[in-house]
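call fold(seq) -> tokens
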Amino acid sequence: MLFQSLIIARYINAIMHPAELMHQLLPHPIAKPWGKDSLPDWLGDPQGKRIGEVIFDSGHAERQALLVKYILTSERLSIQVHPDDATAQRDGHVHGKDEAWYILDCKPGAMIGLGFRDAVTQDDVRAAIADETLEELIAWRPVSPGEFYMVPAGTVHAIGADIVLVEIQRNADITYRLYDYGRDRPLHIEQALACARLERYALPVPHIAADEE
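ret:
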């Protein structure tokens, strides 16, 4: 996959050495309802905000093919999906959104959701959203530092609480939420179902230790 090779070739060394990443790209903290009110020292003072994302860019983010983020969670993020190129273009966007996660740190028992426990139908998902049981259909797995996850467009996913990870994504701001734990943010159920893979996640998960380059 071209996207995977670009990630590994361009960013893996920066992921291992965050201080070097800061010299190359400018950090922009963003408050999120599920964020943290304490940050690693090198990210600075959150100034009373709950910081959930720190986006790094060169000062010309609109020109970057890939975008680098730190994601810091104290609560679960929404269950969501990103469209592939064809679906995104039908909705008026330039291209879809693949992403990848590298787990930097987490508390014991921290989990992510990737795909479904078993294959489901669109009606199964609609019914689970309606009765607030969608979490039970998602395949949750514990994470540990050093794990590297590819999250192709169409993969239904959620990042759990108490995780710090690097997210490297195609530079597209397109997220369709299926479920958001009662937060006051819009859902995009039909748009999400139009592009979601209603199946199990089956990609390998390599482990890249912090001293590997």
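The mean pLDDT is 83.
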